Amino acid sequence: MIELHERTRRISPSRLHEILAANDARSLVDPFMGLPTHLNYLKRHGIAVHGGDLLEWFVRVGEGIVVNDQTILRDSEVAEIVEMLPGRIYPLDAFKAWEGVFFSEEQCMYLGVWLDNVRNLRSDGQTGLAILGLWRVFCYWLQKSHAPDDMPDVPPSELAWTYIRQTESWVATNLRHNTVRSADVLTTISAQAADALFIAPPARNSFRTADARIWMWEAWWQGNPYFTIEHAYRDSLFGARSSDEQSYQRAIASVLSAAAEYPLVVLQTTERRLPEFEPLVRNARGRVEILAPDANEVYIIAKR
Amino acid sequence: MTLFQDPDAVPRTAASRLADVLDAFGAVGDRAAGNAPGTARRKAAAAVSIARATGRTEDDANALYFAGLLHAVGAIGNLGLRRGNAFSDRTATMARWDFPADGARVCAGIAALPSPVADLVRWQAEAWDGTGFPDQLRWHGIPAAAQLLQLADIVARTTEPDEALVIVGGLAGRGIGPDHANAFVRWFHLTGGEVEPVAVPLDALRADATPPAPLVDLLADRIDAHNAAEGRRLRITRVADAIAERIGLAVAERDALALATRTFAAGELGHATAEHEMFDPLARLGIAERAENAAAAADLFDGNETFAHAAEILRARAAWFDGTGEPSLLHDAIPKGAQILAAAIAYDALESHHRTQIREDRTAPADRLDTAAGTQFDPAVARALLDVTKAHA
């Protein structure tokens, strides 16, 4: 059974929105965006948002709930995702490597079917919504493997239907231009001008200890059950080159240096890691405030 | 009109009075959110019960009590719920997702509350699988106490204990974390799913940090915002206060009237149209509507000692001086505060209409109201209102 992390990054977009509002910031760049539900929140509240990440499925989801202003999945389109379509030949053994290890035979078969159906969707927005909905099914299955008797059995297609239908309720427009890109941190920072830069830096070597629910879904999207995200991070700023403490700190400093043009930088960390980041931010910026509503949620707010 | 200035009132601790104001916030929040009356109190009690049964600290239980009580304060004035919003259903739904964060901001401004309360309110509707709102937190990113508050919400909204058990079982792994669902099952078997009322944890309140009067004003302003009637309570309070002064109303009565002028409009929450927009404030046709709103507002303060006298005023504000209103009280059987409140509300409605409409009938609002003296209104109150408004003019 695969381990599911108890430590989960908590990004509270409503709190972030309060910080942005207090500093009169109307646009934001997040180069470590991860699953961009927080950018969706900010978008719905009128902030122009621009995100970047190295994992492709995060970017695809961003196209569904950040970039996409109006495309939704109708019932007939959801039906074409969650079930096998007559006449189509599916790669039913694409995820056989996971069978008996993480998932049942039926679940592995569905993973193959869904991947094929999603890759045949008509638009980036719909693809992103479907990936997000199906990811929640995937997480449900992994969670259920830990608590088989405590969670109800829901047929795969029903669960997928429910979750995919739910995603469309998050689609909204803010009449602003919002973007996501598949890019390393520095590229995202320099590609876009905005009032604020939000950074929630990954822990050192975090690509090696990433949550299974994150890297396995990238493997699903790549259609390769043996895929590991070390591939994605190989040549990145926070990849193997930053595996020791000093080079990690240099990487953070280079991010802050690249952010010199942003009027506001908000770095989110934890109380435990605050001493690691605070001196670096103070070194880069003149006015620094700490907002610490919780030990797991500390914001270093830096102005020029 | 200053609140809580009655020197002859029964001495009560500042914490009790503050707790009553918070209770009022909770009750009004429920009405704004469309919850059944008493949901906030039940949710608070259920949260404490579940917290204790699952081994949480007393500090956690206290914070959960107040978070349960104030769970819906963000609904008061919420853009998706307020009267007259022009949103589509989809946009209104999205706006409603903001009510926990709005509530957290209200709670964060109440320094007397235990510090975790604001974030418990903020994250009370987050779902384990990340499909909740407002922040779409997921898994262990949701504080465990916030998940307990969600369990309490399920208990508070169900009529039969077994129903809550079935709902939680169905949500395990989706809305509720499996561990929390298990904890709920343990609590259920310990208590039979029954929630006993709990004492308000007054010791957990830092009453000296938050005076209650500004809180009542904040509540009144949010009610007005919800009803799309910004500034109404200020106007009505000013007129009512001047009338009370002129007719020499006793201090205790004025204190209760001050609360009533700030909270009467809670009875209108959830109505698509304001009562004065449906019927002329001097028309008999509107009596039933006014009485219904009056009773709804008064019912919100059942069991709330600080608001008890104000509730009597609220309940009687649709009574007519000649005994033909609802309730059918006659002359001095109607609390004087209710007679003043009724006149002030009617005057404000007439005045607002007079200000915004091009009318052939140029009769001044106070003069129109004077024509109802002796029937709808106490002649002494009507005369005082006429004097007050003329002096003001």
3D structure, described in words:
The complex is a heterodimer of chains A (304) and B (393). Chain A has 304 residues and is of the alpha/beta class. Chain A has two domains: 1-59 and 177-211 and 228-304, Rossmann fold (3-Layer(aba) Sandwich), CATH 3.40.50.150; 70-171, no CATH class. Chain A contains twelve helices and seven strands. A seven-stranded mixed β-sheet of chain A has the order 3-2-1-4-5-7-6, with helices on both faces. In chain A, helix 4 packs across helix 7. Chain A starts with 12 loop residues before the first helix and ends with a strand. The mean pLDDT of chain A is 93. Chain B has 393 residues and is an all-alpha fold. Chain B has two domains: 14-204, Orthogonal Bundle (Hypothetical protein af1432); 227-392, Hypothetical protein af1432 (Orthogonal Bundle). Helices cover 56% and strands 0% of the residues of chain B. Chain B has helices at residues 14-33, 39-53, 58-69, 89-96, 99-108, 117-122, 144-157, 161-171, 178-191, 212-226, 232-247, 251-263, 275-278, 287-299, 308-315, 336-356, 365-370, 379-392. The longest helix of chain B has 21 residues, at 336-356. Chain B is elongated, with a radius of gyration of 23 Å. The mean pLDDT of chain B is 92. Chains A and B meet through helix 1, helix 2 and helix 6 of A and helix 4, helix 5 and helix 9 of B.
